[in-house]
Design goal:
570 residues, two-stranded antiparallel sheet
């Protein structure tokens, strides 16, 4: 599907084939069913029409095509991943940096489908608010804020993957409109989505349901992370400002999210202090070590999902009895419940794990829980992606060999985390470093908090704690410290390639990126490095079908060498 004629059928796709799958427990939200076989002018008349379309926005974002691209675009070209045991020609060509305009993973249709649903809601919601007395102004603004977040997140993925992309806020509702739009530059799209987010950031709900301080555990965290809340708005804005290079605004947005989590802990969650949340450098984080074993933070964040640290995640729930599942994880990461040889289309790069737990690796201290939670060693030579694929990681740190064991996921309901607290902490650290040496110590404190949790720094025999004196001497050392910690903390979460591209854009050189990502390559290393010397090659080509239907699109020069047959010869 192209921006030309993205049809929303008569009523914005009526808004989908069924009830959206956002796993929230607000019954009035879940029980709204989309209407069928009605004319457009009779549809946008009441509050339930808007909520149906909003659920369709979430559902579109949950689709396999969308989440798969969120994951692949942000990871597969990085130094984290290589091919696994399965065969996927399009995927293999991306891993080898031989990407053609015919590669189906370059198809962005699902993102523009999601964007259009959001555009339709934002267009019609004010009209409904005037017609339906039960649809309050604050409810309308909150719905528009949610749709704006989803739309902005889609555009953000698009510009990081393709750089220059068509941008529009105008909905395409029926077949009468020819919808062909030229591409806008990265900076134009970025500035527009920042403006959109700034306009509505405080209209989003702070809570969909407040946690009950009298209960040990309830569903409030699920309600508040499966839908877009105000902290999620600020989290996305922090990321946008980080890419823009507006360091102080990035810090301010990060501070809002961190303060929200601190207040949430102080007011409502202190009862859990002796259980699984602890203070690391003034910031509440889930503990890794509970009693004699480690892995608790992983189990809460990735195994169960919607944890205390979560800010926004794309949530899947088997109780809704629908077909939406996270097939990206189940197809591409390790499938321990599958006895066949096809245990994941992608695998981890050996150097990050090989030698553990006897020795540390280039990236991981041998007492860093994240190494064992992210990567599973099968035999002596295979290193599979464990993150998200395991519902539980158990690390026996009373033994010198650690003896990690896992409960493997047997379903496709792994949530996909978009933002969580440690990501925000490391965004802030990155922005602080860019502000200069006066901010280095504060940046280090944030990085060190993340590291302390990962190595169980409060437990006897824990891994080493970082030392500020090792890094404070230069901006380059501090930058590398932050990037390395993001690498460890966010591995396989769809962030690494984007981080490398952001640094290349900032420095104006692709040299370090090319050197980093070609470490995993076996052949044609110099050829790939030469190709990546062209900054155009950091971005994907426009999909061939898009060029056929949209005459305003012009192929990325890095891929404009003739037709596809010519490209395959190069």
């Amino acid at each position: 599907m192209t921006i030309k004629n993205i049809k929303h059928y008569l009523l914005g796709v009526a808004v989908s084939t069924g009830m959206a799958t956002v796993a929230v427990s607000c019954s009035d939200f879940l029980d709204v069913l989309p209407l069928n076989d009605v004319v457009l002018e009779n549809y946008w008349t009441k509050k339930s029409d808007v909520t149906s379309v909003l659920m369709g926005c979430y559902e579109s974002m949950q689709s396999s095509d969308c989440v798969t691209r969120m994951g692949l675009w942000g990871e597969v070209r990085s130094d984290n991943m290589k091919m696994g045991t399965a065969s996927d020609q399009n995927l293999e060509q991306m891993v080898k940096e031989n990407i053609l305009p015919s590669n189906t993973y370059c198809n962005w249709a699902v993102f523009y489908q999601t964007i259009n649903r959001c555009n339709i809601l934002i267009h019609y919601a004010p009209e409904v608010q005037e017609l339906d007395p039960n649809y309050t102004l604050s409810e309308m603004k909150a719905n528009i804020a949610e749709a704006t977040f989803i739309r902005s997140l889609c555009y953000f993925h698009l510009i990081r993957a393709f750089r220059d992309v068509p941008f529009t806020r105008e909905p395409s509702i029926d077949d009468t409109k020819e919808y062909r739009v030229p591409a806008d530059s990265f900076s134009v799209v970025l500035n527009n989505i920042i403006a959109d987010m700034e306009a509505v950031k405080d209209d989003a709900q702070l809570y969909f349901r407040k946690p009950n301080p009298d209960k040990q555990k309830d569903d409030a965290e699920v309600d508040n992370t499966a839908r877009v809340t105000r902290p999620a708005m600020y989290a996305l804005l922090a990321d946008l400002y980080l890419w823009k290079g507006d360091w102080q605004r990035c810090v301010d947005c990060c501070d809002y999210v961190i303060k929200f989590k601190q207040d949430e802990f102080d007011k409502l969650l202190k009862r859990r202090l002796q259980n699984d949340v602890f203070i690391f450098n003034d910031i509440p984080l889930l503990m890794e070590k509970i009693e004699n074993t480690s892995g608790n933070a992983y189990n809460e964040i990735f195994g169960k999902g919607n944890s205390f640290e979560s800010i926004f995640e794309i949530t899947y729930d088997e109780r809704l009895n629908n077909n939406n599942q996270n097939s990206y994880v189940s197809n591409h990461y390790y499938n321990g419940s599958n006895s066949s040889s096809s245990n994941g289309r992608l695998a981890a790069v050996d150097e990050f794990y090989e030698g553990l737990p006897t020795n540390s690796t280039e990236l991981f201290n041998n007492k860093d829980c994240r190494a064992y939670e992210s990567i599973y060693q099968a035999g002596t030579t295979q290193f599979f992606i464990a993150k998200y694929a395991a519902t539980r990681a158990i690390l026996d740190n009373t033994r010198s060999d650690w003896q990690p064991s896992y409960n493997w996921r047997s379903d496709g309901y792994a949530h996909w985390i978009v933002y969580r607290l440690t990501d925000i902490m490391l965004m802030k650290a990155e922005a602080l470093v860019e502000q200069g040496s006066d901010h280095f110590e504060e940046a280090f404190t944030l990085v060190n908090a993340v590291s302390k949790r990962a190595v169980n720094s409060f437990a006897p025999g824990s891994g080493e704690v970082l030392k500020f004196s090792d890094y404070q001497g230069s901006k380059e050392s501090m930058q590398q410290l932050v990037m390395d910690e993001r690498h460890r903390e966010l591995m396989f979460e769809g962030k690494r390639w984007y981080d490398l591209v952001r640094m290349a854009r900032r420095t104006g050189s692709t040299k370090d990126l090319a050197k980093t990502v070609t470490k995993k390559q076996i052949t044609n290393i110099s050829g790939i490095q030469i190709r990546l010397a062209d900054d155009n090659a950091l971005y994907l080509p426009y999909y061939r079908n898009e060029l056929k239907v949209n005459p305003y699109l012009h192929q990325n020069p890095a891929y404009h060498t003739g037709d596809d047959s010519d490209l395959e010869k190069n």
